[in-house]
Every structure is written in structure tokens, then in C-alpha cells.
């Protein structure tokens, strides 16, 4: 794999209006994008709820850059990619491509724009028709768009196969005759057939071996330099995203929680969720493992998108959560140049809600008070040995002496009935010592050791 620092520095940060600081218009602009999948019940298909897969995404992609999207499984990354390419109909929000609103554009009007927006699918096995040859699969975009390349379709398909590292002579082979990495290359060749301006790559290397992953990632990088492509790469592998991306968006439960350039995000993450993701990245160099910060383990599972938490959706697993996090949803604000974060208490930045009551105050108190309990027990145990050790060697003799003063202090009339009670007193006398032993567990061994030494 090529050097991680090979890519040019990230493009200028986006302004509040979505355009770059250099005044260039974004190629893709997404504003408050929403996708809810309804949940129906019964014969009448009555709606009883909705899966909030994507809920209010706002971002832009500028020409020639690569925007990486990371997050846990089920956070809505793939759904967002299908919404951008209009493979799914959005529930709300807008999607603009080259200044044109394509959110609810009809299939007939959208067809000419398909050649400029292509997608590389996640599954290299299910995205290819097993009944079609490689030549037919890669040549289908030319037929659908009515494009006649110079030299013919076959010559252009063979050129594309060679471009992605496949043998042009495999034109008449079927998908089952290729390995997983080769099938993914076929999918890349099909996506690049019409020279698109935007390529959405949904987990392009997640189903491949590690050795093949490096080849495909480097191939995408080289094709971008050669053809001037604009990428939006969706992945959950932070190392892959760091290698290919200029800017990175972190998603959690259908929302973007942090958006920044690659250097800022990896060196100084501001959202607690991003910091937890970064702590999970393994360090292959043994000499650098000691310098790596401690691993942050998030408690609990990701909440259901059917009924997400109120306020900040990460507050149920966040160690910095306060009352405001539970009640108020944090907006995506630019706290640094080119660094946007949605958090009331960001890392490496100014606190947006100082002095707010911690949401996990009871848990913190219990954790801080827990170490003090053994100390109290030790102090009791240190005081307990002296009286117990003095009583233990005495044994039965002490019990008789204890009983005699009791009998002598009683009146003479009560002295006679007290005589048969002496054995009872001798039997009951050791019980306080036993109780003392139970209260000071560490005292009993100490007394036993003293008796052994005598």
C-alpha cells in the first residue's frame, strides 16, 4: 500500500453556505436529508412506526475531492449512498447535483444524469448478473445511455478491463469464473464506463482479502488522479478511510456527529464517539503501542433506530453526558476552521454547556466511593485485634472469672440459684468473642498466630 501521506492536502474548508472558502460551488450538496422506512401491521398495512435510517444529514462534496463516511454497522451509511444516487426515494430534504435539485426527479429526467453519478456496490457477488458475460456487464451502460464509443463497445470494454487490472481476453467469461477481488474490479470498470463525475463507493473493500484490499484502494486512488474523479467512499475501516479521504464524516444512528479534514480528525477528534472509534484502531508497530492512549470501551448497544434517544443520540453511551445532552439535540457547528462537530461537551474544544449537571453523577459517585470501603474495614480490623487477642488466650478461665464477679455482686438471696448458672455463663461467654471475630475477620488469624507463638 502506498504511503498514507501521498495524497495532497485536503481542500479548503466549507463555509456556512456549503461552498468552499475559495468560492467554488460544490458538486454535490445535501441538505437535511431524511429517510424513514415505515413499519406496517395487519392486513390493512396500518403504519405503527418507522425506522429512522437517515435523519437530517447536511454536507457537500466538492469537485476532485474524496469524502469518507465512517460509522458502526446500522448507522445509515449505505442508505445515505443510495439516497444520493437516487436508488432510494428520500422522505425529506434535498439533494442537489451540479446545482440541480434531483431529490424527486422522475426516472425519465434522471436517466441522462445517471451517466454522471455511478455507484460501486458493497457485494461483488450479488451486484453482477451471473447470466451475463463480463463484456455484457461492463458494456450495458453504453447501451442504456445510447453512447457509441470510438472504436466500438468491445474495444472500450477491453480497455476498461485493462484499466482496472484485468485481462482483456476475459471479455467472454462469466462472473463465477473470477475471484472476489476480480469481481469487485469488474464492478469498478462498469462504474467508470461512462466517465462519471461522482462515484459513490459503498464498502468497496469490506468483502475482500487484506492483500486484495490494498490493490483495490490503490486502484481507486490512481484512477482519481488519472480521470479527475470525485469520490464518496463509505466504509467502517478507519485505516482505509484515512488512506483515501480528504475529508471524513462520522455517522452515528442516522446523523453526522463530526465532519472534518483528515488531519484534524485523526490528530484531534472532538466528538467523544469519534475518540472512541480512534482508540479502537490497532497499532501494528510495537514501538508505538506504548504511546497510544487507553482503549475507550463504550457501554451498552447502539439504540434502536425505531425509537432513538431524545436529545443527543449518543448520550446513552457517552461518559461526558449531562442533563442538557438528554433533553437538547446538539447542532452541527463549526468549532474550528473546517471542523464541524455536534456535541455539547466536545473534546479538544470549548465546552458548549459548562457547569451542566452530569447525567451519570450517581455512577461516578459510586465509583469514587468504592475504594474507600476497604480502608474503613481495614481500620476496624486493625482496632479489633487488641481486645479479641486479649480475650482469646483466656479461654474458659476468663469466662469463669467473668461469671464469679457477677455472682458476688448479686444479693445473698440470689447467690444460691446463681451457682448452677455458672456453666451456662461459661458456655455463653465465648459468644461475644465469636461475634467480634465475625466483625473483624482479620483479627481471628492474628489471635491464632499469637496463641501459636506462646
Account of the 3D structure:
The protein is of the alpha/beta class. The protein is built from 19 helices and 12 strands. The chain has helices at residues 77-84, 107-114, 134-145, 153-163, 180-191, 210-227, 238-244, 262-267, 272-279, 286-289, 323-327, 361-369, 372-383, 385-391, 395-409, 415-418, 422-428, 430-439, 443-453; strands at residues 28-41, 46-61, 66-70, 92-97, 100-101, 117-120, 198-202, 230-234, 247-252, 255-261, 333-336, 339-341. The strands form 2 sheets. Strands 6-7-8-3-9-10-12-11 form an 8-stranded mixed sheet, with helices on both faces. A 4-stranded antiparallel sheet has the order 2-1-4-5. Strand 9 (247-252) and strand 10 (255-261) form a beta hairpin. The protein is globular and about 70 Å long.
The amount of helix comes to 25-40%
Query: What class, by secondary structure content?
Result: alpha/beta
Unreliable segments of 5+ consecutive residues? 1-21, 361-454
Strand order of the largest sheet: 6-7-8-3-9-10-12-11
How much of the sequence lies in strands comes to 15-25%
Distance from N terminus to C terminus (CA atoms, Å) equals 75 Å
Mean pLDDT: 78
Number of helices: 19
Amino acid at each position: 500500500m502506498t504511503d498514507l501521506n501521498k495524497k495532497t492536502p485536503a481542500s479548503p474548508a466549507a463555509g456556512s453556505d456549503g461552498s468552499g472558502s475559495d468560492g467554488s460551488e460544490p458538486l454535490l450538496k445535501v441538505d437535511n436529508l431524511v429517510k424513514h422506512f415505515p413499519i406496517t401491521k395487519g392486513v390493512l398495512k396500518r403504519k405503527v412506526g418507522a425506522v429512522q435510517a437517515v435523519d437530517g444529514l447536511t454536507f457537500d462534496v466538492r469537485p476532485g475531492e474524496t469524502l469518507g463516511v465512517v460509522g458502526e454497522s446500522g448507522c445509515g451509511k449505505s442508505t445515505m449512498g443510495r439516497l444520493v444516487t437516487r436508488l432510494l426515494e428520500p422522505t425529506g430534504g434535498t439533494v442537489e447535483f451540479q446545482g440541480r435539485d434531483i431529490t424527486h426527479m422522475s426516472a425519465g429526467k434522471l436517466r441522462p444524469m445517471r451517466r454522471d453519478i455511478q455507484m460501486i456496490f458493497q457485494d461483488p457477488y450479488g451486484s453482477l448478473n451471473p447470466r451475463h458475460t463480463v463484456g455484457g456487464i461492463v458494456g450495458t451502460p453504453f447501451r442504456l445511455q445510447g453512447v457509441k464509443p470510438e472504436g466500438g463497445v468491445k474495444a472500450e470494454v477491453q480497455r476498461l478491463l485493462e484499466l482496472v487490472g484485468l485481462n482483456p481476453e476475459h471479455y467472454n467469461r462469466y462472473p463465477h469464473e473470477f475471484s472476489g477481488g476480480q469481481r469487485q474490479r469488474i464492478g469498478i470498470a462498469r462504474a467508470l464506463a461512462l466517465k462519471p463525475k461522482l462515484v459513490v463507493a459503498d464498502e468497496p473493500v469490506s468483502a475482500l482479502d487484506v492483500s486484495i484490499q490494498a490493490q483495490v484502494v490503490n486502484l481507486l486512488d490512481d484512477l482519481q488522479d488519472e480521470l479527475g474523479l470525485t469520490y464518496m467512499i463509505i466504509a467502517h475501516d478507519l485505516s482505509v478511510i484515512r488512506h483515501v479521504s480528504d475529508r471524513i464524516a462520522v455517522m452515528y444512528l442516522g446523523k453526522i456527529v463530526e465532519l472534518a479534514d483528515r488531519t484534524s480528525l485523526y490528530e484531534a477528534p472532538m466528538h467523544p464517539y469519534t475518540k472512541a472509534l480512534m482508540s479502537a484502531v490497532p497499532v501494528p508497530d510495537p514501538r508505538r503501542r506504548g504511546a497510544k492512549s487507553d482503549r475507550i470501551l463504550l457501554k451498552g448497544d447502539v439504540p434502536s433506530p425505531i425509537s432513538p434517544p431524545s436529545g443527543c443520540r449518543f448520550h446513552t453511551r457517552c461518559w461526558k453526558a449531562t442533563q442538557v445532552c438528554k433533553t437538547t439535540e446538539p447542532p452541527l457547528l463549526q468549532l474550528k476552521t473546517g471542523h464541524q462537530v455536534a456535541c455539547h461537551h466536545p473534546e479538544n474544544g470549548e465546552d458548549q454547556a459548562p457547569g451542566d449537571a452530569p447525567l451519570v453523577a450517581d455512577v461516578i459517585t459510586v465509583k469514587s466511593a468504592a475504594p474507600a470501603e476497604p480502608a474503613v474495614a481495614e481500620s476496624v480490623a486493625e482496632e479489633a485485634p487488641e481486645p479479641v487477642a486479649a480475650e482469646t488466650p483466656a479461654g474458659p478461665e476468663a469466662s469463669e472469672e467473668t461469671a464469679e464477679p457477677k455472682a458476688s455482686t448479686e444479693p445473698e438471696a440470689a447467690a444460691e440459684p446463681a451457682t448452677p448458672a455458672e456453666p451456662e455463663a461459661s458456655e455463653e461467654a465465648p459468644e461475644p468473642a465469636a461475634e467480634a471475630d465475625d466483625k473483624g475477620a482479620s483479627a481471628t488469624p492474628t489471635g491464632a498466630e499469637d496463641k501459636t507463638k506462646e
